[in-house]
Amino acid sequence: HNLFGLLLSELNDLPSGEWHFRRALELAGPQAPFLINLALNLLKQGRTDLADHYFAHAHELAPSDMKTLAYWSTLYEVRGDLARAQSLLDRAQALSSAAEVNLLRSNYLARAGRYAEALAILDAAGTLAGDGQLARGRLHERLGSYEQAWQDFVEGKRKLAQEGGGLEYKADAVAGFFGQLAQFFARENIELLPRAKPRSDVTQPIFIMGFPRSGTTLVEQILCSHSAVLAGGELPFLGELRKLAKDLFPGPEPFPENLAQSWTADHRYAATLFRDYYLARAEQYGLAQSGKAFFTDKMPFNEVYLPLLKMAFPGAKIIRVVRHPLDVCVSMMSNNMTHGFNCGYRIEDIAHHLAAVFELVEHYRRELAPGDFVLRYESLVEDQSGQTASLLDYLGLPFEDACLRFHENPRYAPTPSYAQVTEKLNDRSINRHLHYTQALNPLVPRLAPIMTAYGYR
């Protein structure tokens, strides 16, 4: 059960992973390794109070275990209690060595704005793993050393791909799959697909779409500061409908061509099954019966499966967040991003995938008319109040001042943006790409259609 829990947690099926960790504890009794795994799972779910309880229990059972203290310290860092985080890390170091906690120590110093000290720790550490190299690059950027920052980003991503077993982006396979989607999901076929009726007995999803690092976590934090909205985070349910479609309609036709079977009267129940599967998974995550009007789903690249979404939820509220694609590219290069067919390990692959997804989404918007709300990140920064009011109006929600004070929301957003959404809205990340023009200029022709569509230069 512990191994299953680890596997499912790694696959981001956190409630199922939690169940297996709890079952392991029921069968074997309290054991520190199982308690730590459960605590880490709960932390990734954003359930920090409960995670704190299990870290404390694990420490009681194994007071000399350095990893317990180190992991426990991360909980207080994400809460913003840096003093407590540093104290726990000091105790972890006393049980091991400075080298064992270098990356965490550097992260905490960076969070406190002590960038030079944080960089000195990583420079003294010698050989860095991929995540450490990216962290050093972000520190170089903070200190204005942009050439060194980019070198660290490139090398850090190379190491991460290697550490993952030689991860590669298969551009031809992506092009083939996206081509199949575009060919099948044409207007004449889309009009034949069944649509599920809405269910009024459960909380409804809001889909927040956009490229990774485009501001989707910020938008989710704004929305879940409203009394009617619960944060769902990155939910895998929509992508799972592809497998469900394969199970429903086996045969020689691959997905999406097999959906043609849903055109007939005896198979039109498929849309209802898609809807109920999604909501059943949401219930498993504690979202569908929350008492709120909405929960959010911000899984990156959900837009690839937009036609399935519209089968299950024809009237769904869809927010499309856009940001300058070159800023997105830089942000994806500087963080460990695992979504998108392994596109995040080389700048050329990032740009290729963003362009490919944009082309597919533009096709969907022509053929499907999704009725989405387009929100420019830069416009939100420039006019926070006005853009927030327009967003809430699209959702049919009354304006609440708490949405403007999203940075006061105690919720932990388990994404690389968790620290940024605890700050007031600022323009620090706008035009970040201007520091890296030499590296990015070759990408401009590939990204030009996105830039033109949304008014970027």
Structural summary, described in words:
The chain has 457 residues and is mainly alpha-helical. The chain folds into two domains: 2-123, Alpha Horseshoe (Serine Threonine Protein Phosphatase 5, Tetratricopeptide repeat), CATH 1.25.40.10; 171-453, 3-Layer(aba) Sandwich (Rossmann fold). It is built from 22 helices and five strands. It has a five-stranded parallel beta sheet with strand order 2-3-1-4-5. Helix 5 packs antiparallel against helix 6 (82-94). The longest helix is centred in the last third of the chain and has 22 residues, at 347-368. The mean pLDDT is 94.
Secondary-structure topology with pairs:
Layout lengths: L1 H9 L3 H15 L3 H13 L3 H14 L4 H14 L2 H13 L7 H10 L3 H10 L5 H13 L3 H18 L7 H14 L2 H4 L13 E6 L6 H9 L4 E2 L6 H12 L21 H15 L9 E4 L8 H7 L4 E6 L2 H9 L13 H22 L4 E4 H6 L1 H12 L41 H4 L3 H10 L4
Parallel strand pairs: 1-3, 1-4, 2-3, 4-5
Helix pairs in contact: 1-2, 1-3, 2-3, 3-4, 4-5, 5-6, 6-7, 7-8, 8-9, 9-10, 11-18, 14-15, 15-16, 17-18, 18-22
